[in-house]
């Protein structure tokens, strides 16, 4: 009986270390911007941000500061990005919009996007932007 514990305890310790190496299940972990689902979620967040502003001009993502994800009932993406106002007006036909060079027309934003692809559902659940 004592010999079994000498084998079981180290195996459990190794299993614990291996599972905690990727972060706690359900915990927030860093995400990869090369992942298509992550890029799609950010694109959705930027589009929703533009829909929700009273600004006459389009804003676009200028710099990704931090990207995280969390497995929930689906996937929650947490983006911290620098947003910059462009020279394009909302509803315009321009495809490529130059960004203002004035740093006063930038915001740091935190977006949280909840994606449930099996339902075809995606929503912006947090939109917090500060100049």
UniProtKB/TrEMBL annotation:
In terms of InterPro entries, this protein maps to: Cystatin_dom, Cystatin_sf, Prot_inh_cystat_CS
Classify the source by domain of life: Eukaryota
Give me the Gene Ontology terms describing cellular component: cytoplasm; extracellular space; vesicle
Sequence ranges assigned to domain Cystatin in this UniProt record? 23-130
Q: Where is the signal peptide?
A: 1-23
**PANTHER family (UniProt xref):** CYSTATIN (PTHR46186), CYSTATIN C (AMYLOID ANGIOPATHY AND CEREBRAL HEMORRHAGE)-RELATED (PTHR46186:SF12)
What family is it from? Answer: Belongs to the cystatin family.
Q: What is this protein called?
A: Cystatin domain-containing protein
């Amino acid at each position: 009986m004592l010999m079994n514990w000498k084998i079981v305890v180290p195996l459990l310790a190794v299993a614990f270390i291996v599972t905690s190496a990727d972060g706690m299940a359900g915990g927030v972990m860093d995400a990869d911007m090369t992942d298509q689902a992550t890029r799609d979620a950010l694109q959705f967040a930027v589009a929703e941000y533009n829909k929700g502003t009273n600004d006459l001009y389009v804003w676009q993502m200028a710099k990704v500061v931090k990207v995280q994800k969390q497995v929930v009932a689906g996937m929650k993406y947490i983006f911290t990005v620098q947003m910059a106002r462009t020279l394009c007006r909302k509803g315009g036909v321009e495809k490529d919009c130059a960004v203002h060079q004035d740093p006063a027309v930038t915001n740091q934003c935190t977006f949280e996007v909840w994606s449930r692809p099996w339902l075809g559902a995606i929503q912006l659940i947090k939109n917090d932007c500060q100049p």
